[in-house]
Amino acid sequence: MKRLSEDSYDRVVTKFAGKNFLKRAEDERRLFAATVSGYGCEIAGFALSRALLSASLYGVKVNEASACLTFPEGTEESFMREFVKELAAASVRHDVKISGIDVRLTDSSEPAVTVTAGGEASARRDKIKSLKKDIKSNAKNYHILLCGNIAIEKTVSLRREMAEELEKMYPLHFLDEKELEEQLYVTEGGCKAASAFLEIGEAAGYALPIGDGGVFEALRQLGLSLNCGLCAHLPDIFVSPLTVEICETTDISPYEVPGGGACVAVTDEPEKVLAVCEVNGVSARVIGNLTEGTARAVINGDEKRFLDKRK
Q1: Secondary structure of the chain: what % helix, strand, coil (to 5)?
Q2: Which residues contact residue 100 at a Cβ distance below 8 angstroms, ignoring those fewer than 6 apart?
């Protein structure tokens, strides 16, 4: 891996402050990192939001972050600038300071953005281990909640990549990208979802962000992490109409594509969590419950799908 030439590097980004950022994090701070790859500049915002959401689920309020952007050899500088601009815009939306940005050229086949976010350590993080034991011991009393809209990241990316094709198939008001991006920003970690979970506190129970594997993989990981079973109901997992149409057009499952900005959580106080999410403008709903044993399944009518392993 090699860095851009110094002249080109200075024209694209500010000097990298990552070393100082990491040093400050050694004491009472905690770091959360997220990497997203793809050809659209929107992945820069996705990476920041994922890191922020991961932090908030541990009760950590992020106030500073650094980023590393990698591009294939020969990438045009104007193209790289778009990613930096998107990251800057996302940091303003989330009121997070970007301490440094490092841009590198690699032998990779596509761009990638890694964001490392830091914030003050919280008591909630230290309680997670004991909380997981309590949940396992009383699994039948815990409900599973989906907070945020699934597959919005993928929907935004495909909406841009397939703009010409989609605009021939659907009316423009249905493809309103501004409305779509507003959905994305509502579910982004550093925005309303993170604020909601910081406010909920211990009542939030245990939660995991939805990542590249989609909501099915997040549910599987939830069961593995808690060492218990679960039962989720597919009809209760809301998918936006635009996401449904785009996924059908591309023959992909909305339940198995990147879902940054949303999370699955378990709590024995679902009413409290739902109320706080509503006040913060975050869509949330109960989609199932934990069970004893290790069977993890998604039910759709008479059909049952077991989440044994990631495909």
Answers
A1: 50, 25, 30
A2: 14, 15, 16, 17, 18, 20, 21, 66, 67
Angle subtended at Cα 21 by Cα 34 and Cα 213, rounded to the nearest 5 degrees:
5
pLDDT tens digits, one per residue of 204-231: 578 888 988 999 999 999 999 999 999 9
Cβ atoms of residues 262 and 215 within 8 Å = yes
Q: How crowded is residue 206: how many other Cβ atoms within 10 Å of its Cβ?
A: 18
How far apart (Å, rounded) are the C-alpha atoms in residues 107 and 72?
6
pLDDT tens digits, residue range 239-286?
988 888 888 888 999 999 987 778 898 988 889 888 888 877 778 899
CA–CA separation, 171 vs 123, rounded Å? 50
φ, ψ for residue 206, nearest 5 deg: -120, 135
Residue 280 CB contacts under 8 Å (≥ 6 apart), including other chains? 192, 193, 195, 196, 199
User: Which whole-number Å values give the CA distances from 62 to 90, 157, 186, 207, in the listed order?
Assistant: 14, 26, 17, 17
